[in-house]
Amino acid sequence: CFHSIQRKPRFPLTSSSSIERRASKVDHQLQTQPVRTTTTETNKFYGSFEKRLRLCEEVKCRVSPDQAQLLALLVQILGAERCIEVGVYTGYSSLAVALVLPESGRLVACERDANSLEIARKYYKLAGVSHKMDVRHELAVDALNSLILNGEACSYDFAFIDAEKRMYKEYFELLLQLVRVGGIIVVDNVLWHGKVADPLVDDPKTVSIRNFNKSIMADRRVSISMVPIRDGMTICRKR
Ligand SMILES: C[S@@+](CC[C@H](N)C(=O)[O-])C[C@H]1O[C@@H](n2cnc3c(N)ncnc32)[C@H](O)[C@@H]1O
């Protein structure tokens, strides 16, 4: 039975080219994956995006639907009103968060790439959440420092780190100042495709994430749980 299932084509192929196959796979995912509430909402807007080839690239860089669902659930459990995202790309994870924020909620979205932000803004508009978004087109460290200088320390409920891997420690230290006691900081890619556990891998990004993981494990300022969802997410609660 298993083998007969495996032999069937998994995706409806419209052409034999590999690009078309990848696009079909993305279409198929968009149609079949949104089985849960928040993810369904988020994918609804992404599913309408017309450029399927671009979407193929996007899917690789953004969080998966189940990660987006987890982020949104954490925000809802916290009753969060004030959130920060470090690394927006085309807005998938930030849209998942914005959709569950109350009307009075605010999400500071930090991203250095203007082209990505243009696409993200399109989705925010389409989803009717633009009024909740505070988009910062600058280096994340600069954006976070200006929030601190603006007297916003200890005023955020939730933060998500998903930008430059060599800067995780810096982002974390700044966000720890900005998040209130009991607030949550989620860090993406903490497994880094398993490379953090391979002593033979010592490129700068892997070493940075490995060191970050070590330091956070011993950090008494937070309680943590490393969740092996997709590329791994560590959920940190400020004590
Ligand atoms: C993995 S993508 C983010 C995906 C997004 N969180 C999602 O799941 O939809 C990382 C993003 O971080 C941005 N980035 C990298 N370094 C940055 C920096 N120093 N400041 C601001 N953004 C940065 C990149 O331009 C890229 O768009």
TrEMBL record:
UniProt-recorded name of the protein: Caffeoyl-CoA O-methyltransferase
Q: Which Gene3D superfamilies match?
A: Vaccinia Virus protein VP39 (3.40.50.150)
Q: Which GO terms describe its biological process?
A: methylation
**Similarity comment: family membership:** Belongs to the class I-like SAM-binding methyltransferase superfamily. Cation-dependent O-methyltransferase family.
Q: Which PROSITE patterns match?
A: SAM_OMT_I
Instruction: Note the InterPro entries from the entry.
Output: Cation-dep_OMT, SAM-dependent_MTases_sf, SAM_O-MeTrfase
Does NADP count among this protein's keywords? Answer: no
Q: Name one Pfam family in it.
A: Methyltransf_3
A single GO molecular-function term is: S-adenosylmethionine-dependent methyltransferase activity
What organism does the UniProt record list as the source?
Coptis chinensis
Per UniProt, the keywords (alphabetical) are:
Methyltransferase, S-adenosyl-L-methionine, Signal, Transferase
Keyword flag Zinc: no
